[in-house]
Amino acid sequence: MLGICRGRRKFLAASLTVLFVPAITWIYLFAGSFEDGKPVSLSPLESQPHSPRYTASSQRDRESLEVRMREVEEENRVLRKQLSLAQSRSPSHHRGNHSKTYSMEEGTGDSESLRAGIVAGNSSECGQQPAVEKCETIHVAIVCAGYNASRDVVTLVKSVLFHRRNPLHFHLIADAIAKQILATLFQTWMVPAVRIDFYDADELKSEVSWIPNKHYSGIYGLMKLVLTKTLPSNLERVIVLDTDITFATDIAELWAVFHKFKGQQVLGLVENQSDWYLGNLWKNHRPWPALGRGYNTGVILLLLDKLRKMKWEQMWRLTAERELMSMLSTSLADQDIFNAVIKQNPFLVYQLPCFWNVQLSDHTRSEQCYRDVSDLKVIHWNSPKKLRVKNKHVEFFRNLYLTFLEYDGNLLRRELFGCPSEADVNSENLQKQLSELDEDDLCYEFRRERFTVHRTHLYFLHYEYEPASDNTDVTLVAQLSMDRLQMLEAICKHWEGPISLALYLSDAEAQQFLRYAQGSEVLMSRHNVGYHIVYKEGQFYPVNLLRNVAMKHISTPYMFLSDIDFLPMYGLYEYLRKSVIQLDLANSKKALIVPAFETLRYRLSFPKSKAELLSMLDMGTLFTFRYHVWTKGHAPTNFAKWRTATTPYRVEWEADFEPYVVVRKDCPEYDRRFVGFGWNKVAHIMELDAQEYEFTVLPNAYMIHMPHAPSFDITKFRSNKQYRICLKTLKEEFQQDMSRHYGFAALKYLTAENNS
């Protein structure tokens, strides 16, 4: 206590020095500037050299006064600097014996002290607290499980990244689904000065599974209670956020509030902005015990090191066990237990101003907060209804949320200048590859696209499928952009098996797709369709990257490599499963060809059998695919033989062959150098042939291409000479790579190309 008083006396003395030294100096100068009661100007412009008063002696006095004034000002500046340094170095935890008073005041006023984050019940300290260091890492913990929560996390992270000026370290407590989605997302997002660590939420279930919980968040809604055990033992403090949070300011401002904790304060929380814990929402409403209105745990500041020393684990467990004897279950998950602990130990909490957690629940009283506080910091959609919550100002908050929901995440790949980033091998390799390209090359943009890392969000919608136990299951693989979205429902009606789709969309288009899918009974009834969003970047459509993404994330042993504008025949899924067994695809390198046809009619009576299809061919309603513009693409299928075939037959590879095939999931990927229109499938079939795949045509299978407007890429191919030149160059380079990789056997591809 004595040390604190001495420190304050020193602080006061230094402050008085800073204030009074300049004042005394100016009084002295001001008094010295009068002679015979009249003011004397110190300005050379106003001096009167011919006046008898202005002797050489008085001139020297005036100059010496000016010199002295500058010296005093310099001393004053140095003193201020020393005082500032001493203030920043002084420990913010001079918290010996202090009063443990507690107030339930919310901190929603307009006073400057509240805007500075000082709320009632938290007494002022000596001087101003130090700001967050420029390159200090801010730690954020989030519990995330499942497909929907993973989407919510992305919006939360966008809002944080948009405002941040510090390195960030996200600690994600995630189940297997969320980890797969978010690990891929952050790996492909490549945001500088952002580190991600995952902790297995499923391993933590045993820690909290004994607590009955009625909240819609389920068992994962209790896992914030065990963060002291879960997070690294050397991590001292962390900001804990719910997934339904939106930031409207720099998270460093919230991190700085840690400096205001005193004594045994270890939890930073905002008061609950509803009457839930008052128990008056309905008759016989009986909430868990809480201090006044209680606290909301959507935003928590945790002093982990002190919590561990206080034996937090034992504290919350004993409290939960005691209350569950009468309450039987929690209604608001971890929030009920946090509040029960605080009720018994109010000194643990530092009450944050309400603008750090503006809660938009159904029974919210948050209007009392944002009516008075203009600079809202954090919006919390803590209602099961989320954006559909009833609130007269919900449009304002919804627009803020939608800003980040549809914001281009690629723009958040900003460097933090002056802050060294951890070495990222993937980023370094990418920079090395790009640096080796010649920017003066007319095909530079084509070559660059091969190395572009596209942000990827796997399983954008709920996915649930267990492959058939007989190991014959087949997944339809395709890719699409926004202009082919209308094909999804038709494909789902034609193919009942699992589907893996890669969608090339902007952030805003991804939300349009989400609304479209959620409004479709056909799509919502199917849980075996994996939608993988690859976000737009660059000027080309990365068709083969999209195919590779869709191929990589299938759970079946076989896949049908199709395109989104083809409708498979009814029953093709079951037919392919039987063919897999019949042709022993598991033990042989085969590519099963599904013959492709097309119609020029937008409204087609789809043939229900091969006989019906042959009749439509004869009538001119259907045609073999691209027979009139690109015959070579499917000619080797031998449609004349297919008409009468009853058993599978083998065909040989020919130049420019690009059939749609069924293969094992371990087949080679598509070559990424081919983007937009041209040679993307041709190169893949050539690779299969080089690896000695046997091409077998299925006699009773077919698919039909539906008409649509020409794509942007085919339009560029037809109108842009340089586009065609670059495609030819890429083809030649691919063939050279094939020769180097496969040796003498690959010479036939060069010969075939020259003869075609």
Look up the CATH topology of one domain. Answer: Spore Coat Polysaccharide Biosynthesis Protein SpsA, Chain A
User: What is the name of the CATH architecture of one domain?
Assistant: Alpha-Beta Complex
Strand content: 5-15%
Globular, elongated, flat, extended or rod-shaped: what is the shape?
Answer: elongated
Q: What's the CATH superfamily of one domain, by name?
A: Spore Coat Polysaccharide Biosynthesis Protein SpsA, Chain A
Would you tell me the structural class of the helices and strands? alpha/beta
How many distinct beta strands?
25
| Cα Rg | 35 Å
Q: What does the main sheet amount to?
A: 9 strands, mixed
- What portion of residues is helical? 25-40%
Average per-residue pLDDT, rounded, comes to 82
CATH hierarchy class name of one domain? Alpha Beta
Please tally the helical runs, counting DSSP H or I stretches of 4 or more residues.
26
Sequence stretches where pLDDT stays below 50 over 5 or more residues: 1-6, 8-12, 16-58, 86-129
Termini separation comes to 93 Å
Identify the strand order in the major beta sheet: 13-16-15-14-17-23-19-24-22
GO molecular function, one term: xylosyltransferase activity
Pathway: Protein modification; protein glycosylation
Protein name: LARG1 glucuronyltransferase
Family: In the C-terminal section; belongs to the glycosyltransferase 49 family. In the N-terminal section; belongs to the glycosyltransferase 8 family.
